[in-house]
Amino acid sequence: MLQVTETAQQKLLEALNGNQEKDKPTGIRVLAQARSPFQVQYGLAFVSPKTIKDSDRVITMNDLNLYIDKDSTRYFEEVTLDFEDGSSGSGFKFLNVPRVPKEYKGTLAEKVVQIIDQQINPGIAGHGGFVALVDVRGTDVIIQMGGGCQGCGMANVTLKH
Q1: DSSP codes, 47-96
Q2: Rounded distance between C-alpha atoms, residue 161 and residue 139, angstroms
């Protein structure tokens, strides 16, 4: 289940204690929104007593309560939440995010993700682009091209070659 570094715990507690909203937050909701099994977006939000659900999974660390929606728990296996403070900025970061869910190990989907990660993305990263697997239906592979690939005249060439 989700691991949270000490630095991230401290920063989350600071954010909670410094919040001056009318409905004082009592914890942090850890969010996972899946566009597909291969594209999960993570996020954080304040939780007030009104927004807590009976079905939420609660993780307590020191004085910090983290709430995860029961339908999202599978996306937090082997994931770590950290806080990074560097020259390019600071913020929370989800690490060890699985690129291929357990149920797709050894399938065409896993092979496609490996090719995207090892051969395609390194080549187009220099142009600010990326490719992400969205779905596999039979032998049809559905991808998303983003970043510098969005609107690029060479995106079609990248796709076909």
Answers
A1: E-GGG--TT-EEEEETTEEEEE-GGGGGGGTT-EEEEEEETTEEEEEEES
A2: 18
**Whole-structure pTM over 0.85, yes or no?**
no
∠ at Cα 57 (22, 17), nearest 5°? 30
Q: Pairing state of beta strands 129-137 and 140-147?
A: antiparallel
SS3 label, residue 101 = coil
Q: Which residues contact 140 (CB under 8 A, 6 or more apart)?
A: none
The 10s digit of each residue's pLDDT in 15-38 is 988 877 777 788 999 999 887 777
Q: What distance in Å separates the CA atoms of residue 64 and residue 128, rounded to the nearest whole number? A: 37
pLDDT in tens, 55-84: 999 999 988 999 999 888 888 888 999 999
